[in-house]
Specification:
Largest sheet: 6 strands, parallel
Protein name: Succinate--mesaconate CoA-transferase
Number of helices: 18
Radius of gyration: 25 Å
Strand content: 5-15%
InterPro entries: CoA-transferase_III_domain, CoA-Trfase_fam_III, CoA-Trfase_III_dom3_sf, CoA-Trfase_III_dom_1_sf, Scnl_mescCoAtase
Region (Disordered): 354-379
Oligomer: single chain
Keywords: Transferase
Number of domains: 2
GO molecular function: CoA-transferase activity
Strand order of the largest sheet: 3-2-1-4-5-6
Number of strands: 11
Helix content: 40-55%
Length: 405
């Protein structure tokens, strides 16, 4: 029943068939990574579509079928609108499961069971199926906890996982990291788990359940805080942009913005002191221990040097020998030749608008196979006939007849 996409992919995952039941950010980003590497991702959307379809911004007007949020993480996918509570739609979904390699969902635990579409049910139809779930607190199948069933978003995951407690200025409140890392990092880990499960299936013929929890992912991301607490007994807290064991490793104000400098090795420290014309500092603080002991006074010395210089002048003075970079905004990124040369900004069609829009490209580059967005995000149910073939026409005929009665 599964009809392949009419646009043939040259990606490494071009033979992978993925049923994507996810919505909002974590799940769609996971399947986006797979689609960028060539997987045929069919986005199964509930009646009315993904919740974020109408989210702004828009290229020109709110009459467009979707905004930038949906476009960015659903590029290169196909769309099929199904009501899993409807008998015929449920059977259409199950027929796709029989030919799928992967099913991904990010519902609360128990939701698929209410549709009688649990992992166990789907595995009966396809024993080689890899079934992946992305939830706030995981699934009871892989470790039951009292939090499962609770709603979770990026903010919740960052708060519980310790990210906010170690982010922000020392005298300020706990601070959320800007991008939705509770979603995005979890999504990337889920993609790794899916591909590992596919590798296992190809060796053994056995599918399995892949469970990735947002809370777990944030604990993994804050691995430094975990080992610091274990080794010292002290729970790390906020330190601004500095590092607890490395110096200098911080952001410094310039005349036109900020620059970051990471000169914590002895060689880099000497290079920084030479650029500052402060040979005395290189001589007085030759090793990491001495620099850490006087980090506040040394930070002031570096800040005095950068304060009246432009960010470009600071970076140029360090001549690429000392790790340093300007703090860029998105407009700067759009003008950065590195970003252009690496195809990290990609133009795609925006339905309903008179111009293309730009989205982030794939950060995974491969020497022999393509890794890039496979076109714009889909319109709702755009690929019904393409995916279901004759079955789609029959189902549409039945629905039309029922509506005429």
């Amino acid at each position: 029943m599964w009809a392949r996409s009419l646009a043939e992919s040259m990606g490494a995952l071009s033979d992978l068939r993925v049923l994507d039941l996810t919505q909002v950010l974590a799940g769609p980003y996971c399947t986006m990574l797979l689609a960028d590497m060539g997987a045929d991702v069919v986005k199964i959307e509930r009646p009315g579509g993904d919740l974020i379809r109408p989210n702004p911004p828009y290229a020109e007007s709110s009459d467009e079928p979707y905004g930038g949020y949906f476009q960015s993480v659903n590029r290169g996918k196909r769309s099929l609108e199904l009501d899993l509570g409807d008998v015929e739609d449920r059977e259409a979904f199950l027929s796709l499961v029989e030919e799928a390699d992967v099913v991904v969902e990010n519902y609360r635990a128990g939701t698929m069971e209410r549709f009688d579409l649990s992992y166990e049910t789907l595995r009966e139809r396809n024993p080689e199926l890899v079934y992946a779930s992305i939830r706030g607190f995981g699934d009871p199948r892989t470790g039951e906890t009292d939090r499962q069933g609770q709603p979770s978003f990026d903010l919740i995951a960052q708060a519980l996982g310790g990210v906010m407690e170690i982010t922000g200025q020392e005298d300020g409140p706990p601070t959320k990291v800007g991008p939705g890392i509770g979603d995005l990092f979890t999504a990337a880990l889920s993609a790794v788990g899916i591909l590992a499960a596919i590798h296992h299936r190809d060796r053994t013929g056995e599918g399995q359940y892949v469970d990735t929890a947002m809370y777990d992912a944030m604990v993994s991301m804050t691995e430094r805080a975990v080992y610091q607490y274990s080794y010292t007994g002290d729970a790390p807290s906020r330190q601004g942009n500095s590092h607890p064991t490395l110096f200098p490793y911080d952001a410094f104000e310039c005349a036109d913005g900020y620059v970051v400098i990471a000169a914590f090795s002895d060689g880099h420290w000497r290079g920084l002191c030479e650029a500052m014309d402060r040979a005395d500092l290189a001589a007085d603080y030759p090793d990491a221990a001495s620099r850490m002991a006087e980090r506040e006074s040394l930070r002031s010395a570096i800040a005095d040097w950068t304060r009246d210089l432009a960010t470009a002048d600071v970076v140029d003075a360090l001549e690429g020998q000392v790790p340093a970079a300007p703090v860029q905004d998105t407009a700067d990124i759009f003008e950065d030749s590195h970003v252009e040369d690496r195809d990290m900004l990609v133009d795609v069609e925006q339905p309903g608008a008179g111009r293309d829009v730009t989205i982030a490209g794939s950060p995974i580059k491969m020497s022999e196979t393509e890794t890039a967005p496979g076109g714009r995000a889909p319109l709702l149910d755009e690929h019904r006939a393409e995916i279901l073939g004759d079955d789609a026409s029959e189902a549409e005929g039945r629905r039309t007849a029922e509506s005429d009665d």
